[in-house]
Amino acid sequence: MTEITAPLSDRSVSFHTSDAAEKRLRARYAAEKRFKAYGVIAIAFAVSMLAILLFTLFRTGISAFWQTEMQLEVTFDAAVVDPKGTGNPADWDRGAFQGLANEALYKAFPEVTGRTDRRELRGLLSPVAGAFLVNYALENPAVVGQTVKVWLPTSDGINQIAKGNIDRTLPESNRPVNDTQLGYLDRMESQGAIRTAFNSTFFSASDSNYPELAGILGATVGTLLTMVVTILLSLPISVAAAVYLEEFAPKNRLTELIEVNINNLAAVPSIVFGLLGLAMFLNFFGMPRSSPLVGGMVLALLVLPTIIIASRAALKAVPPSIREAALGMGASKLQTVMHHVLPLAMPGIMTGTIIAMAHALGETAPLLMIGMNAFVTAPPTGFLDSSSALPVQVYIWADKPERGFVELTSAAILVLLTFLVAMNATAIYFRKKFERRW
Amino acid sequence: MPITYTVGTLLILTALGYLLGRRKAVTVAGGNIASLHSVPSYYGSFSALWVLLPTISLVLLWLALKGPVINWAVVDGMAPEAVLGWANASIPPGELEAVRARVAEGAGALTDIQRQLLLINITNLAAGQAQYVNPAVVDILRPAAAHMQDLRSLTDWALFGICVSLAAAALFITRGKIGPAFRARNNVERIVTFLLIICSLIAILTTVGIVLSLVFESLRFFTKVPVTEFLFGLQWSPQTAIRADQVGSSGAFGAVPLFAGTLLIATIAMCVAAPVGLLSAIYLSEYASGAVRNVIKPVLEILAGIPTVVFGFFAILTVAPFIRDMGAAIGLDVSSQSALAAGVVMGIMIVPFVSSLSDDVINAVPQSLRDGSYGLGATRSETVKQVILPAALPGIVGAMLLAVSRAIGETMIVVMAAGLQANLTANPLASVTTVTVQIKSILVGDQVFDSAKTLSVFALGLVLFAVTLVLNVVALRIVQRYREKYD
Amino acid sequence: MDTQTMTKPAAENGTKSAKMSARGVKVFYGEKRALHGIDVDIYENEVLALIGPSGCGKSTFLRTLNRMNDTIDICRVEGLITLDGADIYDPKLDVVQLRARVGMVFQKPNPFPKSIYENIIYGPKLHGLATKKDEFDAIVEQSLKRAGLWNEVKDRLMEPGTGLSGGQQQRLCIARAVAVSPEVILMDEPCSALDPIATAHIEELIDELRENFTIVIVTHNMQQAARVSQRTAFFHLGDLVEVGNTEEIFTNPRDERTQGYITGRYG
Ligand SMILES: Nc1ncnc2c1ncn2[C@@H]1O[C@H](COP(=O)(O)OP(=O)(O)OP(=O)(O)O)[C@@H](O)[C@H]1O
Ligand SMILES: [Mg+2]
Q1: CA B225 → CA A385, B228, B229, B233, B440, distances in Å?
Q2: Is residue B235 included in any domain, yes or no?
Q3: pLDDT higher than threshold 50 for residue A9
Q4: Is residue B230 included in any domain, yes or no?
Q5: I need a surface site. Which of A139, A244, A362, C188 has the fewest CB within 10 A?
Q6: How far apart (Å, rounded) are the C-alpha atoms in residues B339 and B430?
Q7: Complex ipTM over 0.85
Q8: How many domains is chain C built from?
Q9: Span B203-259, pLDDT tens digits
Q10: Could you name the CATH architecture of A217-434?
């Protein structure tokens, strides 16, 4: 080794403390800083996108919980409302109520007389105000034959202008409400005949072509029914499968195949599950289209692999000593699993299941494939009824041209996200509460 | 006899089986329970399972097959005159000739579409909804509808009878078997294990179901459109006419523009997701303090938990207009359904996926390698770039492949933000369509389920399934190998 | 730490100058104290062996010498450690430069998953020790020769370093450390994963490396400490019990704990 000499053994001046090395070091630290900045930028990008997303949804969605209403003096002319004169609400001419609302509007603006002018004026009032008037009369049957002040929803355009969702300073041609109508609006406002009220319709109604009448009740019920089917099918099957694969299965070709298969199934695009549902459940077995039953079945298959994988992980986390102890006391393998291992793994399984259900809750594409984009104006009453679902409702509304549906879409998303947050919070609570250190 | 009653009866019989089995065991033991091989409840369960399982399987099987079998029996049992009469009133004259020519075959003379129409009419009649049926054919179809109702009630009663006798037989036989030496527990456990196996096979059945339904319908499609045209054709316009005599009745089914569009959007998505996801993962695992990690990771998880339909809405509400305005500001003409907008939003959606997979992969790189590098005087970024990333490369490649597969199969974002027009272009500012968009747009809306157009959906689905499957298998292999290396 | 009482490290042994020295070094892992105040000098061109029962803090001390402990979040170091008289925990001192001057070889061989050649030039490339291909070639040859590995691998320099045997991998790691041309090399039980022949090989190597480098080695093997080191430090439960010439420690220990340990009564 003596033939090795300089520069390695030259200790007169350490290379690492030389000026050249110092300079190089500065460059290296600059590179370091740059690289770190990339990381910060990447994270900032992801976080700010989430922030923008949530912010936009809040900004556009929050106003949907309020509805602009106008106060009109409606005369419930008994001859019009109840042409048969039976006094029984079932015999009312419901179609006539819109006319009553219009008359009340004309009365508030007596100077507006011409046909076209009156059409312009009607633009202030919701074209489905009659439906609200019917409900009002049903609740207060005594009003028939009287004249009362009633708060009625404004048209979508007025609603958006009044809530500031549409800028009233836009050029006239770019907004749904023209200058004359704005004038009417201002006049009513100055008379205190315009107010913003809580939009209870949003929670009590189902889909509609009119934003004032549209709500999420039907879709929410549809989603709940679907989820019930999903969990009833997927949870027992997945847990059984996980128990078998983790505790009983011999290591052979078949179980290996099952495992590979489960892993791959977890990554199959969800729309393909929709095609499966369409071809198998609907076309082959002739099950009812658009029904929560079929939707739930498709979603159950979709979340099956996720729950199986989570359940297996939970079972695996139970230490072997527990099994040995139970087996040592003369319990059979099945008893050991059912009495000791499974209960201990249950929190983990529940956590995995809730997360999987949250995933299923947001799934849209497979439900579209089996026709759950049905236009349902009333909540489904059973598992075989035509039904929609919350995420599908979001999709349907996002497609509608009326300005009012933009805020409804955002609001429906906010509701959907609230469900998701609640579910995930439950999962986290479970995980924290039952977290166990062996 | 609705099936719910049958099921209810079976449940009662099951409970009865449990009680009887248990009682028999206790009686046989004659006060000395210890002389039994198993605890009495196992004898009860043994009886109960034998009552329930065979019958309930039968019920499920019948539920699944009832529709197709009865439909087939009703339609094929129709008199040729009735079929002809219905056809005269219901199908276009152009198609009538073909039916007339083979009138002796009865319903066999009908095409699949016609058959479906006929069936819908009969089903509506049978359900008492004559208002949905062309009045001209109501009387012709009455017998068939009655036949359908008869068959339904007959089979339901038969099912009830068979199930109850099966259950009774099971009660009887299991009761006879129960004795002190009978190994009830082992028997019950064998049955339960069998059930567990069945459940774990459902995953396989799902795959088989997917493959079968896709392949089966695709084959029907390929009898109408050659495979080569589908895979290599450059024209996609699936607007087939409803009636054969309509002009322009043959659509074009060259799927290359769809594949290209899918790839374009997936590429844009990966251009966003790969760097952002990977760099975040690196920052979180190599730079961030525990506190920062504890904040950022849940934030990324929230991003991962947002439904794709929400991202789709985000794309049309915010990102697409933003990109269009930006384009306009620098004088570019950006389509309002540009591939760029859809791709970017999809990328944002995939970021947490990439970052959590990469995080796992990076954390699997042993600490000793980092120590070795730091010990030689490397900075963090040098260690990351020259030691950790090369060591983690296979795992990262696997993660990226999984992400690509995710991007290809994603539906809602593209359905909402990408276009419908099949343009063969690589311009990210133009509007393109994707495989999933076409599947959705063709299927949504009530379609007669037999045209080349609707069938093409399954061919697209098959391609989608095959491609994502290959990507997943390869990616999972790579990741698994990688893990084994550092275990 | 009270700086007033800290004097500039004085040579314990007049003839040599201290390359590194530690004064009152305390190390904490979170709340737990792993070292209770260590004073020791490390002389140039000498091998210092650290011995002591498991968990007594040898690795901890070794890692404070090139601030590898910085990578552990909960670890905190108090006291003074100098390299050529300069405080290495001085915030102005650069840790990257420090680690280039004080290299480290770990207990488990940890070659990078790259070729042998790339493993060796990794450090020199970072620190700009060479720029041209033939310079790198020279460094690779020199370092591998120094680590006694050249003859075994000279025909397979482009093969992955992970494909070598355990002993060869460890020598590769030594070569890798040497290639950076550090002033001090720290070795944490470099032979614990190796068989006796490979161990002998590395011991020989350490003896040769002493000519150019200052070496600190942690070992559990008394014979090894006796064979390779000039001075030995005995650690016990986070305390430095005794440090002195190896011969003296092994033949005539002053502390009975040292005696107990080297005669195998515990540890
Ligand atoms: N990363 C760490 N976090 C917390 N405590 C640690 C850490 N590393 C070491 N310790 C603790 O510090 C003490 C000294 O550990 P150290 O590794 O220095 O011992 P050692 O003398 O090298 O032992 P061995 O001979 O077994 O390698 C031990 O009690 C150990 O538990
Ligand atoms: Mg140690």
Answers
A1: 37, 8, 7, 11, 20
A2: no
A3: no
A4: no
A5: A139
A6: 6
A7: yes
A8: 1
A9: 889 999 999 999 988 998 898 888 998 999 888 887 754 444 444 446 788 899 999
A10: Orthogonal Bundle (1.10)
Identify the domain containing residue C235 by its residue range.
Answer: 4-262
What Cα–Cα distance (Å) separates residue A429 from each residue in A359, A424, B45?
18, 8, 36
Between CA B8 and CA C94 the distance in angstroms is 80
Residues A315 and A312: their CA atoms lie apart, in Å, by 5
* Residue C71 falls inside a structural domain: yes
Instruction: Say how many Å lie between the CA of residue C192 and the centre of ligand 2.
Output: 10
- Are A334 and B192 an interchain contact pair (Cβ–Cβ within 8 Å)? yes
- Chain A closest-CA separation from residue B98 CA (Å): 26
- What does the alpha-carbon distance between residue C104 and residue C98 come to, in Å, rounded to a whole number? 11
Residues B156 and B191 in one domain: no
Buried b (16+ CB within 10 A) or exposed e, B86-123: bbeebbeeebeeebeeeeeebbebbeeebbbbbbebbb
For the stretch B14-45, what's the b/e string if a residue is b when 16 or more beta carbons lie within 10 angstroms of its beta carbon?
beebbebbbbbbeebbeeeeeebebebbbbbb
**Contact assessment for residue C181 and residue C129, using Cβ atoms and an 8 Å cutoff:** yes
pLDDT of residue B106: 75
In angstroms, the CA B339 to CA B455 distance is 26
DSSP string, A29-64: HHHHHHHHHHHHHHHHHHHHHHHHHHHHHHHHHGGG
- Optimal mutation site among C20, C88, C93, C96, interface A, most CBs of chain A within 10 A: C96
Instruction: List chain A residues with CB under 8 Å of B189.
Output: 332-334
Q: Does residue C24 lie in a domain region?
A: yes
Judged by its nearest atom, the ligand closest to the C-alpha of residue C60 is 1
The residue count for chain B: 487
Contact: B390, C112; criterion CB under 8 Å: yes
User: What's the C60 CA to ligand 2 centre distance in angstroms?
Assistant: 7
Question: What distance in Å separates the CA atoms of residue B455 and residue A180, rounded to the nearest whole number?
Answer: 53
Per DSSP, the residues of B200-216 read HHHHHHHHHHHHHHHHH
Q: Are residues B151 and B256 in the same domain?
A: no
Q: Does the residue B102 lie in any domain?
A: yes
Token look-up 């840790």 returns C95
Report the CATH number at residue C209.
Answer: 3.40.50.300
E strands present in C30-121: 32-43, 47-51, 75-83, 86-87, 102-105
Domain of residue B22 covers 3-182
The CA C55 to ligand 1 mean position distance, Å, reads 5
Coil, strand, or helix at residue A371?
A: coil
Per-residue confidence band for C58, with pLDDT thresholds at 50, 70 and 90: very high
- H helices, E strands: number in chain C: 10, 10
Amino acid at B389: L
Nearest-Cα distance to chain C for B289, in Å, is 8
Last residue of a domain, one of B150, B182, B214: B182
Output the CA–CA distances (angstroms, integers) from residue C116 to A275, B382, B451, C157, C193, in the order listed: 53, 19, 64, 5, 20
Our mutation pick for probing the ligand 1 site, out of C25, C29, C72, counting the most ligand atoms within 8 A of Cβ, is C29
CA distances from C133 to A172, C118, C138, C139 (A): 74, 12, 9, 10
Q: What is the largest CA-CA distance in chain C?
A: 58
A408 close to A205: Cβ distance less than 8 angstroms: no
Question: What is the pLDDT, as a whole number, of residue A371?
Answer: 87
Contact A20 C127 (CB under 8 A): no
- φ/ψ bin of B257: left (φ > 0), alpha (ψ from -120 to 50), beta (otherwise): alpha
Report residue C88 as tokens: 């290495």
Rounded average pLDDT over B49-62: 89
A306, A309, A311, A315 alpha-carbon torsion, rounded to 10°: -170
Express the helix, strand and coil content of chain B in percent, nearest 5 each: 80, 0, 20
Give the position of tokens 């691998």.
C153
Q: What total of structural domains would you count in chain B?
A: 3
Spatial separation of the C-alpha atoms in residues B271 and B411, rounded to whole Å = 19
